[in-house]
Amino acid sequence: MAAPAPPDADVKASGQPASPSNASAETLKSTLIHSIPIADRPPLGYQVKATFFGILWAVFCVLLRASQIVMYPLSFVPGGCREGYWAFVDHTKSSFAVMLAYLSRSTTLVITCDDSINLEKVLVKNGTGVIKGFKFDDRAVWIANHQMYADWIYIWSLLNLSDLASSLSIVLKASLSRVPIAGPAMLLWKFIFLSPMRSSSTPAELNEDGTVKEKAKRAAVKGTWEGDKQATGNILWNLGRRAMNKAKPEKGGEKGKEGKVALLMFPEGTLVSPLTRPSSAKYAEKMGIKDCSNMLLPRSTGLLFALRTLLPTMPDLSLYDMTVGYPALPPAGHAQAYYSLRSIYLNDQGPPKVHIHLRALDLSTVPSLGNLQPGPDKKEEYAKKSTKPVEDDAKLTDKERGEFDMWLRGVWTEKDALLEGFYEKGEFECREGQRVEMRLGSRGIDDWLAIVITVVPVYVAWRGVVWWGKFFGYWR
Q: pLDDT value at position 376?
């Protein structure tokens, strides 16, 4: 159950508890820390544990990125070496998820499902009946509401339990690609970075004949969906092509065993906060539609493009919807005010439980997707043309886009109702047998071996440099 708010705290109009500044130290200690906004929590002072895990995380990220760089020359060698390099890159993605799960080991995932998923059938158990993970569809698009910056970590941990961590691609904002060390690594992992939506009223530079200069054309679309569309299409097209190649015997694959693809998208585009909440309400008023109470209105453009790009080469593509809820939040509250990356991983104040409610959405009922199946005989032809996604998108009519947008808003309305019930009862409703809890953390020796294998190239390169220096007499 969700923790109650402090008894002496009133609820403001924004949905956030008022500051319990007058509360005694004893009251604060007796109140579950997660029910108090981060800004109102007592100072923790110096923490040895936080320092240790901060250093551990930094060292691991540096070694992971160094391993990718050491192995990079293999990407220029055709054949097995190149495939081996990309397999290693996928492995580093998986080991990154393993480390995230280990650092989040104080959190328990609470997975619930509606009737579209038979939970018993997707559970993976060992010989003694202990639950070890899940078996979701190998090729799927995953959509979720976005409440705080750590959302993707818990979802990635769920996919790691489903043996999909190495196949994950996440759609993120473009600024994250410039984060030192992590940014270049995520680019190699085929994460998709989109610029924030913007409009420009700056007059375009013209040639003498009155036509727009090419430089001005590029500047006009930079930082817009039109500017990101081709790059996004290329990445998605390559994901589909690689999945197909893994089923080709001549490529070293097994016939009928396409590769795995897991694409994670947050259709809201950003997290719910006091800054973004008014923008959603303003847009709803402008369009004459109902706004959400616990989420932002979704943007349909990116999801529609992704589905239309992947479906032609993946007729078995699935669509999963995840509604994520965090304990201790008041209705219409902002999760980022209670759980930040700093408070979770440095202050050891992460959510004791993260609730994820899963639904499988039937793609055959989704509008604007009905004419995309090229058939088995044309999949190869489609996969040879990387500009096809953009060409297909240009054929969409405003009516088709509007129908898909209306469908997605309907999904978000249902999710909003789910969150209303979650905040009222402390968990998502589901039938008996449709709920399971799994504690995050290391799953055994295999997880630690995955981390060791990730850093082996750095060790081998270092020993090679030492041997080379001694052999040529540069040092003793």
A: 53
